[in-house]
Amino acid sequence: MKEQTGGGEGMADQRREQMLQAALDVIVERGYPDTRITDVAERAGASPALVIYYFKTRDQLLTEAMRYAEDAWYAAGLRRIAAIGTAAGQLEEVVAMTCLPEEDTSPSDSWLLWLDLWAQSARNPGVSAVWSKFEERWRETIKSLVLAGQEAGEFAPVDAGDFAVILSALLDGFAVQIALEESEVATARAFELTMRFASDRLGFAWNGRRTGR
Amino acid sequence: MKEQTGGGEGMADQRREQMLQAALDVIVERGYPDTRITDVAERAGASPALVIYYFKTRDQLLTEAMRYAEDAWYAAGLRRIAAIGTAAGQLEEVVAMTCLPEEDTSPSDSWLLWLDLWAQSARNPGVSAVWSKFEERWRETIKSLVLAGQEAGEFAPVDAGDFAVILSALLDGFAVQIALEESEVATARAFELTMRFASDRLGFAWNGRRTGR
DNA sequence: ATTGTTTGACTGAATGTTCAGTCTAGAAAC
DNA sequence: GTTTCTAGACTGAACATTCAGTCAAACAAT
């Protein structure tokens, strides 16, 4: 499905992305099940009919928006991680990704999205697929990071698989707290507790540096 | 068929509870936002109008159902915990409560409910109140359990508050995994990993016993 | 006892709204 | 002049809630 070349080429893709972004805004604001096509259209400066034109159904729009958000979040994180030299530093970035807020997005946005992602995954196969893929990728990232750190002699020889499972569970759990608790303190505390856990388990020194980004 | 025989006043309460239970069934099956009054009425053997008669609005019904479920779950757990002699054993029960399935309910039911509880809490003040109260109570339970264990000399002198925060986050995180992962293996693994973490942190010996209930 | 009265549980049939998705047709790009 | 894009008006179904009562039990007065 290649688009036409020339000036208008990016136009359609641009519109699509605009709508996905609009959909994400609305999902965060109203929740996945209460996101109406009209809302998305309005926010994207288009008509409801146009939204349906681009995404056959409402569900396709929302599912794709979820995938879009997760992919973007993951890709941005990976890029940052790749720029870090030590395994310990990389792990810290992994933890920061879930515990510390990004600059551009409003603090609790991505976590609110997660809550919806989970709740929807339980019953919606399309969304569930997004979650599974994301979860697996995420755990794999942690695991290989740990393995690399062990080879480099930075980390103690714990079972990397077990560690990945437990760390990702811990991060998910904190994500709930952060998403639902209004207190800003929670993020810093979650970050510190998690880093203490990780450094203790993997046996590297960690002196609590950053508190924000 | 007979209405209010003897303590006719109990009839109404009975009916109410019947409806709450029906609501929970439907919520688990269809998700909170897609739970229709008709569904609940049907399952409770009543008319939609009667459901509204008991609970002024749909939202009140669903919120109350959530509270009902959480209270029941917590109360049953507390009772079991109270019957255990050692702090280590009690802690094991706490972990089992979230990681190992109950007998009567279908495995993932209560966790599915949690996912909905979280997602709804983000936007619905009534549900949010249910969650807050539940969360606080839960963390307090862990904390005082740890303190008691420390006084009894069973546990190492870690910060009980920090431990409660991190353990409840870990359990929440595993709850997500268990609720969404279909594999039955997950529960046993989550239980074991969590118990290893707890016994390591609190410095008590744990020999992985139970795998089910 | 019989009759009328009250009350609480309950229902079927509206009511009105909200939406996803469709249809038709115009504008723009090629 | 055909394809791609866009919007306004519409349709049809789904649903929460309301309404106007029914029905039977308890109760009170005769």
Task: Assign an overall shape of chain A.
Answer: elongated
Oligomer class: homodimer
Count of DSSP-assigned helices of chain A: 9
Percent in strands of chain A: under 5%
Name the helix and strand elements of chain A from N-terminus to C-terminus, one letter apiece: HHHHHHHHH
- Low-confidence regions of chain A: 1-9
Largest interface, with counts of residues having CB < 8 Å to the other chain, equals: A-B, 35 and 35 residues
- Kindly state the number of beta strands of chain A: 0
Structural class of chain A: mainly alpha
Binned, the helix content of chain A reads over 70%
Radius of gyration of chain A: 19 Å
Quick one: biggest sheet of chain A?
Answer: none
Q: Between the first and last Cα atoms of chain A, what is the distance in angstroms?
A: 40 Å
Mean pLDDT of chain A: 88
